[in-house]
């Protein structure tokens, strides 16, 4: 009954904070004392708490609104109070932005407002001609250049690369690392991919940096080549520049982070026929197969190996290097349907081109029915390839039986 009385006498529209608090106190007491209080009591308590919160917020906002803030404290860009101001050379004050992304969004406005972007870009690029500059200054400049690039990129590349022309990149390892990292960051944006690849100095510098430099430099150079190779026209340019040999070398060396970037770049480049020929000639099959046998980057490298089976020389090399038992083991033991599919495709090509491998595949099939299981439960492509191998084996068996 006490509960009902509380609900009946409760005002439906309350404007004063003290009245709200009194009513809230009654409701809370009801919740604490009464065992069978209704759900509506809790709902009403929550509603009052929400109203109190809103009143508190409005009260705080009113205090701020009534305070006169000097114009000098307001950032001209964000229109908010500056808590970390910076004074430019022009004497204008702006907020130092807290995050990299925020910096990029608003710095365009600074450059446009001051009409200084061309001047700033060229001044910074000219500083890069100096022989001796502290690395910290270089890093700051490269960060600024990444932003300024989007304002006037046309003439920036030659000046940007000037300190590290191809052939002498590794003479300043720290500078090389910062510059290659900058190129990688800029290469991610679609508008820059063709611009970089068509410049006669960028790709040679990246290729040289994959070959020599700090491991971070080599990794970022490989990542930049992977990024640039997303355009088909760039794949040919990068391949002709001799990128595959150092990328294969970086993969073979075995530095975990760098290996993946190298593997991805090799895969992308091998999507065009001319680069497959180059990759096989540079020893890609041996290196890739060894990594797969060591259970390293199996997903990525199987996909590349499957692409390389379009080359007769690659197929022969796979057979000589013991690919057949390795592929069968993956089909039998892997949980990845894509890996099983790629293995079946590679094995099918080997069986079509090298009859000396039939016996090993037949023996495996008799022992474990690996291909029969795949033909029944694999992906549509895996089923097709597995059935193709089984037909080859059945024909071989019937010929042997006839003889």
TrEMBL record:
Its EC number is 2.3.2.27. It catalyses: S-ubiquitinyl-[E2 ubiquitin-conjugating enzyme]-L-cysteine + [acceptor protein]-L-lysine = [E2 ubiquitin-conjugating enzyme]-L-cysteine + N(6)-ubiquitinyl-[acceptor protein]-L-lysine. One of its GO terms (biological process) is protein ubiquitination. Pfam families: ARM_PUB, U-box. Residues 68-94 form the U-box domain. One of its GO terms (molecular function) is ubiquitin protein ligase activity. It comes from the Eukaryota. Signal peptide: none annotated. Gene3D superfamilies: Leucine-rich Repeat Variant (1.25.10.10), Zinc/RING finger domain, C3HC4 (zinc finger) (3.30.40.10). Keywords: Repeat, Transferase, Ubl conjugation pathway. Pathway: Protein modification; protein ubiquitination. This is RING-type E3 ubiquitin transferase.
